Amino acid sequence: TSATTMSLYGLKDFRLQVPVGAGWRTVATVTNNNLVLRSVSFAAETTRYVRVLVDAVVDPNDVYARIVGLE
Known about the structure:
Layout: E1 11-20, E2 23-30, E3 51-57
Antiparallel strand pairs: 1-2, 1-3
């Protein structure tokens, strides 16, 4: 459910970005996330790509970010 929290393998801080010219522009930022299912809203964009830039994971000893789905 949308209220289920996590203690392992999740994204704590991340940014959603879209390409702009040769760079990327942040359209949404999430900090201190502890939800298994996280919904993020941002203004409509016309783009072919969305990048999830992970700044921190829940377990600081974990070296991988695990994203199960993006839609």
